[in-house]
Structure formats: C-alpha cells, structure tokens
Amino acid sequence: RYEGVDGPTGVGFGDGGVMHVASFGTDEVVSYDIQSGLFRHALVADCPFLDSPEGIAVSGDRLLVASFMNDKVLAYSASDGRFLEVFGAGPYMDGPQVVLHHSRTNTILVSSYHRNKILVLDAVTGKKQSEFGGSELRRPVGMVAAPFGHEVLVSSHVTNEVLRYNASSGNHIGFFAQGYGLWAPTGMALGLDLSVYVATFADGVRRYGFWTAS
Description:
- This protein is 0% helix and 55% strand.
- By secondary structure, it is mainly β.
- A hairpin with a 5-residue loop joins strand 15 (161-166) and strand 16 (172-178).
- The model has no long low-confidence stretch (mean pLDDT 93).
C-alpha cells in the first residue's frame, strides 16, 4: 500500500501538476505531485455517497468519480474536493467503472461493468442520452479516446480484445488489438507519441502503435 491509497483504481490529472487517484479500499480520492510522486492530501474523503470509487475524469472544474457499489457518478470540485452533486445515477449504470470526457462529442462516457455497455451522458446535466455495446463487449474495464475523429477504444476484459467504436453513432467498427498474448486487458492510456498503453491482468503493460495495432 502506497501512502494515502488502498486499492488504486482510476487516475485523473488536474491543474498544477497534480494526479488524482481513486482509493477503492478507503472510499477516497487522494492527490499526488506528478513530478515527485509525493502524497499531497486526500482531496475527497468522508463523503457518504462515495462507495468503492473506480474511474475518474476531470471535466472543466469538476472531478467526476464513478461510485461502483451504488451505481452513481459523483461530481466534486477539482480544486478543493467539495461535493457538488450526484452527476448521474440509476440501475442502468450497474457497476460504473471507467469515466471518460469525450471532448469531440462533448459527452461523458461511462462503462457499465455488469451490463457490458458504454453509457453516453450529457456533459453538463449528466442525463443519459444513449448507450452502446453489443455481444462483442464483455466486462469493459478500460477506455480511451482516439487522437482524432470520434473513435473510442474499449478493453473487453473477458474476450481479450480492445474494441473500436464510433462515439457519436455507437457503432462497433472493429478491433484495435487482439491475440498475440493479449490476455484480460484492463486499464488503457494514450501516450504523447500516439501509442496506446494497455494494462493486462497477466503480464504488465503492452504498448501498441496507433497506426499498426492488430
């Protein structure tokens, strides 16, 4: 256990060189200095609504946090951690895990772990607009926006694949990565060099060139 965190899950980056990390075991969001890695403080703590935090997204001056056990996405002040509102909630979430601000469609995408769906929420109101994901998607636990267009990549943990979707239409448009030892993919991140980094349950992190993935 690293100082301040117990069961790190989601990560989000704020202003001033700050990294926010969801602490699943303590129901907190803790902050670290990006350069030194030193613990700063618990940004969100003692919030009665937060139960097993997972994904984090910074959207403007708000910090959106998936509350896995009670099917909510909560909004906090990104600067001081004040609780602002229940951004989204309902049985349709059923295990919200990843939260992503998709800037090109100006929506908030939330993965439903148990329903195997990607929920599309209004970026301002949190109202559900639509959802996508069919039988090809099994346990979506990672998600990243492509560096161009409206494409979003989603890791399908059970089928050992990273899938491609159009975030506007919700259409499944193929596979980004599969096979070659990709086993139980989880979290994902896009590098500055347009490489896609995929964490796997078995053997660490795999790196894919965005133009050459298969």
